[in-house]
Design a protein that fits this description.
homotrimer, Udp-n-acetylmuramoylalanyl-d-glutamate--2,6- Diaminopimelate Ligase, Chain: A, domain 1, UDP N-Acetylglucosamine Acyltransferase, domain 1, 12-stranded mixed beta sheet, 10-stranded parallel beta sheet, flat
Chain lengths: 347, 347, 347
């Protein structure tokens, strides 16, 4: 697809400065702009790139004043970032969305399926599954028995959803994610072997949840593992049985929550974070990357380190930690000095 | 499925106290009990919940004496936890197990398949594969050439098993796990590129092994990567080429073993543990979450930290670590005091 | 397949010592050799095993001089390791390679496919996909629209490739890996919810890249996430949006790069490494296992620890860290001694 500068400007209620007939077919960052791409300039830090970018069109603010010659076509708008974002949305829509049912796919006769859906080839829909309207299920996805999926949810290729899962509206599940696998529950027996505890609960993903590629969310032993509304879970994350993740909480890749831990609303977890089981993490908690949390955390705290500490304390600890060899040398010096002082006194 | 209190009591050799006709269709923790659910009370810590639970039926001990009015129906038995667990087993069985071969699936004509199996749609069975009796292979699973799978093993949706794998009886492989991918073996060459070492070994999973969702077990360079009988491996774990995991060892999510490391029997690893390559970890070893192991570990040790230390020492180290800023201040104070003392002496 | 000692010796330009008619059907390490296997002896540390190995054939150097009786057949060559490696290559080739198109598979009519390819059952080829010659695509793999795959690349079972991906020649993508999933990009809004930023970029894997099982590589927000020529990425690794990984860089399992980080050429990362976003890691950088990198790293550095420090400094820090309880005791002793000295002076 190609778009003319003139058409873009009209869509954005902006004005063209330069060649109104130049076309673009892709977007780029201003510092990486190539011919045929559209970029934007919002952050003044990047102003220098506008004089050298090869992007064919750059969206700039009405206030922008060039200090050198500019070779690209400009489109002037009130808020370049917002304008660019709305173009991205348009671009996504213009690419067209998948629709229809590809063959072969497997739909159990007891399943019910809404309007306007996409069902890719080799996708599997189990018994009594209920799928809402405008749901997209990409090839090779597996939807286990009795699962319910709300309107406008997208399930990418190869997602595996175990039976009895509840998924809300407007969710996005990325390729390879696994929802509802058995919780890791075993009872040790006298001979050293483990007896499996049947995991009879399920997983509930509320509306507008996003689950990253190859992330795993285990079902509850009993009851539900719940990811609340609007939470965003990155790739390769482990959410164990009976956990809860609060509304609008975001977690970066390779993080793991052990069983029965409850995380509050509006939290932000960095990558590689580990949280032990049966803990309560409050609302608005920030955990730095690689934090290891072994105790409950109160609302509004920012923690770092393993074991995790309040960030202001953790920062101080880490400064001293880096200087440990120097600290040890200072102690050795003190020991010598004190020995000398004692020697002198006893003389 | 609905079950009457009377029927449940008969199955458990228990006695009903309350409405023998009340029915339940699901189970719940006593503190989360809702109408229509069955709960149990075993741990005295939870006794308070029996007076407020909405669960329709609660299994209690014959010895239990109510101190307030109870609104739920009780079933009295000798051991409530054991009784509940046997009900969960029954519930699992009552849900019915999958059987039969769904279409389309792919079975190479040279493969042999036992009695009573389930083969889901879009599952793939390669050349010379041998599958035992009562094996369940869910949709979109891939069983590579020459693989052997023992009786009563369950392979969930989308599991990928490379060629020549040996899987015992009663194993469970969760969705998205990958068994037998190439070990990470490369030889550096003079021009800085790497030459791949062909990985011609395989993976052996002995009987009653459980592998978590999206976990990866690489094949051996030569010989076998072996997970011994009864080991339980959680989600998103990496077992590298030529590793061995001992009988009844359990590992929590996001743990990784580097190549050729041997782990003993009855070990317990927390989450996010890393073990370097070519190490020997003894029997009955416990590694705390996020431990980083760079040396061999003897039998019966409990280790923590990165680098991992004996837990009693690690606990002491971590106490001082948290207090590092205070320690530094103490050293600064000492330096001043000693300087003063020296000054006074030289006067 | 069985191979005679005589035939192997001829292939290797070597000479047989012992039974030239003995056959082998597999390879083994010399210390694990069993009848019917072929091993090699290159490292003098392993010489002791040649007197006890059960391997039927061992490849040894022309210079090797036995000090005891040897029961196995020897094949003498100039360089036993090189000879063995060439046999492994031969063995791989002799196993035969998959070819042809299995049914059912899904090939969009707009896709173009080269000569000599293997396309497994239940594989999916989207619109306008271009696949080179001798490409192997195993069962249940998903190739999204507009993707281009170069000659001689192997895509194992269940790999998921999102639209617009570019994959070079001679690449290997292991089972369950996900290429091109959305970057983790969200803009917080005033009501605490997050608005998704459309991810319109793609992923580029250059020639001879290897991607491990269940590894995830996110697409760029705009532009491309790039894995350069010859880079080798192990299992369960997260490469975030807009990252670059330099030529011949190798990364071990469970490592994660946050968004927009650029890693140079010929780097080596251990397992469980975390690198924060928007960083630049130079060429020839080595990061020890479990390192946490929060700052740019210059060429040729070797770093360790979280936060990562130069390895020589990190080694010193860790020695003191392990001795922290002793250090604290020394400070307590010093405090007592200084207090005593002060007391004596004031007397």
């Amino acid at each position: 697809m190609e778009f003319k500068a003139q058409s873009i400007a009209e869509f954005l209620n902006g004005t063209v400065e330069g060649d109104a007939n130049v076309t673009v077919s892709n977007v780029a960052k201003i510092e990486e702009g190539k011919p045929g791409t559209l970029a934007f300039l919002s952050n003044p830090k990047y102003t220098k790139y506008i004089y050298e970018t090869e992007a064919s069109i750059v969206i700039v603010s009405n206030d922008f004043q060039a200090e050198k010659e500019i070779n690209t076509t400009l489109i002037r708008v009130d808020d370049p970032y917002k304008a660019f974002a709305s173009l991205l949305d348009l671009y996504q829509m213009a690419k067209g969305t998948k629709q229809g049912i590809e063959n072969p796919s497997f739909i159990d006769p007891t399943a019910t399926i809404g309007e306007g859906i996409y069902l890719g080839a080799f996708a599997y829909i189990g018994k009594n599954v209920k799928i809402g309207n405008n749901v997209k299920i990409y090839p090779q996805a597996y939807i286990g028995d009795n699962t319910i999926i709300g309107d406008n949810t997208t399930i990418f290729a190869g997602v595996k959803i175990y039976e009895d899962t509840r998924i809300g509206m407007g969710c996005i599940l990325h390729a390879g994610s696994v929802i509802g696998s058995d919780g890791f529950g075993f009872v040790p027996t006298e001979d050293g072997t483990y007896k499996k505890i049947p995991q009879v609960g399920n997983v509930v993903l509320e509306d507008f949840v996003e689950i990253g590629a190859n992330t795993t969310v285990d079902c509850a032993t009993m009851g539900s593992t719940i990811i609340h509304k609007g939470a965003k879970i990155d790739n390769l994350i482990q959410i164990a049985h009976n956990c809860e993740v609060g509304e609008n909480t975001v977690m970066a890749a390779l993080t793991g929550l052990a069983g029965s831990t409850k995380v509050g609303k509006n939290c932000k977890f960095g990558g590689h974070v580990g949280v032990a089981g049966h803990l309560t993490i409050g609302d608005n908690v920030t955990l730095g990357a690689m934090s290891g949390v072994t105790n409950n955390v109160k609302d509004d705290k920012t923690m770092l380190g393993a074991p995790a500490m309040d960030i202001s304390h953790a920062a101080k600890v880490m400064v001293v930690y880096r200087n440990l060899p120097q600290l040890r040398d200072q102690i050795i010096t003190l020991q010598k000095e004190v020995a000398q002082l004692k020697g002198q006194q006893s003389n």
